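Marked as duplicate of an earlier ticket. Keeping the data here for the record.
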Amino acid sequence: MADFDDLVRTEAYLIWQSEGRPHGQDARHWEMATERVRSRMPVKTVKTVAPVKPLPLQRVALLARATRKPQLAETFRASA
């Protein structure tokens, strides 16, 4: 992909040509070109996430016990 400044430079040149190549308008052409290039760029959207209510400690303890694998301890003992 082309560099941002290259895109602006090309756009400013096209603006300059379309206006009949006037002298002393380079800053205005550059600003116009910058706005045009930015308007064509995709907008990054930020996905908002709703805050999550933390779980009570009792619930966390229950979930930890439920997901614990008892056979894991047996595997470690057998390999030692």
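See parent ticket for discussion. Residues 4-40 form one domain.
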